[in-house]
Amino acid sequence: MNCRIVSMAILAMGLFVCDSRAQSKAERKLIEQLRADIGYLASDSLEGRRTGTEGERKAAAYIVQRYKQIGIFPYGDMYRYNFKFYGDKEPANSSLIRIGDNALKINKDAFPMAFTAEKRVYSEIIPDIMEQNTIMLLPFYADSAEADNPHFDWEKAAYARTDSAAKQSATGVLFYDNIGSKYAPEFNGKSELERSTIPAAFISNKAYMQYVKALSTDTTTVTIPIELNLAIKKIERYGNNIAAYLDNDTTYTVVIGAHFDHLGYGEDGNSLHANAATDKEIHNGADDNASGSAAVLALAEMIKKSELKKYNYLFLNFSGEELGLYGSKAFVKDMGLDSNKIAYMINLDMVGRLNDSTHALTVGGVGTSPSWGEFLEMKNKNFKINIDSSGVGPSDHTSFYHAGIPVLFFFTGTHPDYHKPSDDTARINYMGEVQVINYVYSLVELMEEKDKPLFTETKQTTVGKTKFKVTLGIMPDYTFQEGGVKADGVTDGRPAAAAGVKPGDIIIKLGDNEISGMQTYMQALGKFTPGEKTTVTVKRGEELLVLPIEFMTK
Ligand SMILES: [Zn+2]
To answer: How far is the CA of 288 from the centre of ligand 1 (A)?
Structure first.
């Protein structure tokens, strides 16, 4: 997949050789199965398992076939449940931008602004002459500096100019590219601006020259009829959840789940790869979360073969996680799941990169039941456990926590390949994953001797997917507790990397804002806008560095 993998593969083989001395026969068999499952799910042929794509469906078919092989039946009539959600915006088919007799080709010569009011307006205008209560034909760029700036926040500027046109009693705005910029905008499907009060659209420099400019000369005055009939819709998308059920004919059910979707080529804007939009590289997601998907299959097989009968076991593989926990939310909401009948939920998301020197394993959701204390006090020689008490976190257990179900979340930590095309199979620590699976199994065994655990609400400590105008381009270490925010990874080409921030640096100040942890970091980020310049203060070992930083649009 890329050349960096080769050296890592050799390293991984080295690890494998020294680990293998400690492996029992069962462990070797499990490693073989994990290699097959992760190997297939993270292969290029699945193209990064983006929700609703052919690759996601292939992954789903594979997981279903594995449940059949293990001998676990579907939950209800079928293994697969699809769910609908809404993705990016696009111009509705009914959208019309007409100049004279020419209906412009939407998304080629013209497009409605994503923030446009949805209505029809019509005016006959004389270019360059502003009249009351007509459509305004406005130059898009205030000057060539705007046109030459690739980071010009054109949408925000267009929004403000539309607003001011409305205040001057314009009925609509048609922007034209007055410069012929090489950074001319395209429809922004990810726009989050509120609707403007009047319709607003954009036409290319070419369309302007052809349909407007060619008609007007200095000596003649022409009247140009313009019609805007604009509408925006959200793209409907579908994902597939998988549910397999081990029915032990008892009252309560244990849920063990993991998401299997990933980023595809990074089309949804959630890649941390610097040039995801243009590079079109497959994000294989071996750790995120082929590792967790394979772990759920392994646990399903172990539980199926066991004598564990106190609870029923429901194994769930979610899609839509990377877009905002859509699959697990849909499952909890639409499946008629009686949350009082769910004993607890275990979520495995990224369990394939146990670090052989730190042995750090994050266990989240610890505060969601008093029962978890006893489990965590059990001796374990394999891990240094980082506890996160919150039931809310960056993965699917959150959906179950919100339904009042005790949850536990297992996670071997972030790494520089997180959400990048380099999250590949060769970097998986298989023996480490076996240890995680055995650890989770020991929890399931322990809980078999207990009654349904009590649910307790937790204080929200993890900050969810909050939306910001700017990002630094770092992957924070959520488990770091020593003051400041530690950068586990730094995305190439983003502001932090450009400023010289390195993995391992601890950010303690952003501008004048002191940063003591994730909460203050998020608050500080919320104060900046794209294009703004400030400084970021980092601790690197004993050193304190103040680095100039410039924010850019996400
Ligand atoms: Zn992810």
So the answer is: 5
